[in-house]
UniProtKB/TrEMBL annotation:
PROSITE patterns: PTS_EIIA_TYPE_4. Keywords: Transferase. It comes from the Bacteria. Coiled coil: none annotated. This is PTS system, mannose-specific IIA component. One of its GO terms (cellular component) is membrane. It comes from Fictibacillus solisalsi. PANTHER family: PTS PERMEASE-RELATED-RELATED (PTHR33799), PTS SYSTEM MANNOSE-SPECIFIC EIIAB COMPONENT-RELATED (PTHR33799:SF1). SUPFAM superfamilies: PTS system fructose IIA component-like (SSF53062).
Length: 146
């Protein structure tokens, strides 16, 4: 079973989960970690270690972090070299998260991550440019469909 850890600075991770639940319903296989000013690097590392090791043998964590090179991602890399039993993906956004948590349980972790990264990239659109390229105006009713 795939498990997801959303690990970010501040309360972003908790808000991502609450927002995803608003859209997709309850997600019992998703948990979060918040890096705050009150946590030292050592405290954060121990908390992340505890989360990542409290799982069944058949469960595999995919950790989604907010910022490549940030303290949360860096701590995850340190733990990855030690524990070697989870995946880390940086740059989490809502399209990525929804794609991944709603993926088929039988889908491989590699395919789940690949689709999540593709969704993250596809979800970043400068609408002004898109409208201009379609020769539309922002004043025109515009509906975005899948």
């Amino acid at each position: 079973m795939k498990k997801y850890l959303i690990a970010t600075h501040g309360e972003l991770s908790k808000s991502f989960i609450e927002t995803a639940q608003l859209i997709a319903g309850d997600a019992p296989n998703v948990t979060y970690f918040e890096m705050t000013k009150l946590k030292s690097g050592d405290m954060a590392k121990e908390e992340l270690r505890r989360i990542l090791t409290q799982k069944q043998e058949s469960e595999k964590f995919i950790v989604l972090t907010d910022l490549f090179g940030g303290s949360v991602s860096n701590i995850c890399v340190e733990l990855l070299s030690e524990l070697k039993n989870f995946n880390v993906v940086t740059g989490v956004n809502l399209p990525m998260m929804l794609t991944m948590i709603l993926s088929d349980e039988d889908q491989s972790i590699e395919d789940t991550i690949s689709e999540g990264v593709q969704s993250a990239k596809a979800g970043i659109i400068h609408l002004n440019e898109m409208l201009a390229s379609q020769k539309r105006s922002v004043d025109v009713d515009f509906v975005i469909t899948d």
